[in-house]
Amino acid sequence: MSDALTVLGQILRQANTRHSVLASNVANVDTPNFKAKDVSFGSILGNEILLASTNPRHLQVSVGSASGDVKIEETQPWADKNNVEMDLQVAKMTENAMLYEAGVTLLKKKIQMFKSALRTSTGG
After folding, report:
1. Could you give the CA distance from residue 106 to residue 118 in angstroms, rounded to a whole number?
2. What confidence tens digit (pLDDT) does each residue in 74-84 have?
3. Residues with Cβ < 8 Å from 86, sequence gap 6 or more?
4. DSSP, res 59
5. Tens of pLDDT along 2-28?
6. pLDDT digits (tens, 9 = 90+) for 43-60
7. Among 25, 28, 32, CA closest to 73
8. Taken in order 5, 21, 39, 65, is the CA torsion positive or negative?
9. Which residues pair with residue 71 across a beta bridge?
């Protein structure tokens, strides 16, 4: 139907996957030897979307494989060898929720555009 719908669907699916990974980190905050994991935005989308940096102050996003691999975070562990930092996980979950909401909003707008085009073309 549209490349935009495909990309938006991929963003929503992968934001859901990242949420599960981050929720697992929070659930294991007190588990000895647990290592926090994350899925980076670049590896989620792979080559589906290329971000152009037109200003040196733009965020740099490295585009990796499209597999959305879960990677262990290499941060300094606590005494119990668990490296989950609750504040960081909550911040990442908030960021991920914002990405998901933006994707849903864009998807709704795209569907509204298709509906409007169909109404116009059918005269209804």
Report:
1. 19
2. 888 889 999 99
3. 26, 29
4. P
5. 788 888 998 899 999 999 999 999 999
6. 555 544 555 567 776 655
7. 25
8. negative
9. 38
